[in-house]
Amino acid sequence: MALKEKLSAFSQWFWNEDVWLPPGTTWAHIRDTSKVNYAQIEQLYDSIYVAVVLFFVRMAFERWIFMPLGRHYGLKGRPKKPTLGLSKDPILEKAFLKHGHKASREVVTGIAKQLDCSEREIQRWWRQRTRCERPSTLDKLAESAWRGTFYASVFCYGLWCLSDKPWLWDTMHCWYNFPHHNTTADVRWYYMIELGFYISLMFSQFMDVKRKDFWEMFVHHIVTILLLTLSWTCNLTRIGTLVMILHDFADVPLEAAKVVKYLKMQKAADSLFVVFTLAWVVSRLGLYPYRVIYSTAYQATFVIEMFSAYYIFNSLLLALQLLHIIWTVFIVKVVIQALSNQGIKDLRSEDESSSTDEKED
């Protein structure tokens, strides 16, 4: 069988109408007509183009806006790589890449003999070289400033997009006449921008500042991408837009709190953290389970016929709620820390030694 035929057979198997659509509905039933524009699978390619555009927009914003802002407030970037001489540096660099941030005493002794240096010189070089790998406070500020800018912008766009939509106020409208819902251009771009952003985050996360919840965030990005893709494919866009706007809401004060914390504005950081905590509780622990999950798990059962993708969609929503609970534990730790008069720290960051804004030995 030719490759084209195999791919065609796989596509037919994967996009089985009995799995992705309600009983009695076929893909032909949700193709665009002169009166209704449906969400189309092929439109998801737009999100890839958006992801690429957002990546370059981020690079521009960080380089020409956020980095200069941080330097204006006295923040420093990563230090230059240390040197012990042109003949010695390649050997040290090769050893560093092999052994990582922590070299054993035997390794240090062996390199010192090989290069005719003191162990103290090798240890000092190693510490300085390790600092070059760690993110500076300037790096952290630029990253948080970009995310805060995006979340604030897309949240405002989401409010504008949904302000005249009936399902924002009454979630039963997410299910009336499903799946025959008209997808307007503003909703389409709301989806593509959000999906593109999370696609870019999933890959840039490996280059960004490493956090304590790295893998939780990675799982979150995958779950979010699956949710957006699935809801778009099945024309569950109405409930999908509610998920998006609720998640963007709390992220705005969180990233703002990080920015002012990096700028050493502790009182402003503490105040914004209070705003974030309230926004988190209201959106992630309140509105999300009692509006979104309640609607999909309970209200929908009175209006639509059940199908396989419906259960997959609900499983992903519950997985997202589990992540919310895990992150709430982090937030509680920060609250306890604040009450002990230590001030607000970013518990999602690595420990303080991860910053390169330290004094050199």
Description:
By secondary structure, the protein is an all-alpha fold. The chain folds into 2 domains: 273 residues, no CATH class; 45 residues, Arc Repressor Mutant, subunit A (Orthogonal Bundle). Helices cover 66% and strands 0% of the residues. It is built from 12 helices and no strands. Helix 5 packs across helix 6.
Q: Give the biggest beta sheet.
A: none
Oligomer: single chain
Q: In percent, how much strand structure appears in the residues? A: under 5%
Q: Number of DSSP strands? A: 0
Distance between the termini: 66 Å
Supply the number of structural domains: 2
Given the structure, what is the number of helices?
Answer: 12
Based on secondary structure, the structural category is mainly alpha
Mean pLDDT: 89
Overall body shape: globular
Low-confidence stretches: 350-354, 356-361
As a percent range, the share of helical residues equals 55-70%
Radius of gyration using CA atoms only: 25 Å
Give the SSE string: HHHHHHHHHHHH
Keywords: Membrane, Transmembrane, Transmembrane helix
Pathway: Sphingolipid metabolism; Lipid metabolism; sphingolipid metabolism
Subcellular location: Endomembrane system; Endoplasmic reticulum membrane; Nucleus
Main location: membrane
What is the topological layout?
Layout: H1 3-14, H2 17-20, H3 45-72, H4 89-99, H5 105-115, H6 119-133, H7 137-162, H8 185-204, H9 214-233, H10 237-262, H11 266-297, H12 308-339
Helix pairs in contact: 3-7, 3-8, 5-6, 7-8, 7-10, 8-9, 8-10, 9-12, 10-11, 11-12
Short note summarizing the structure:
With 361 residues, the protein is mainly α.
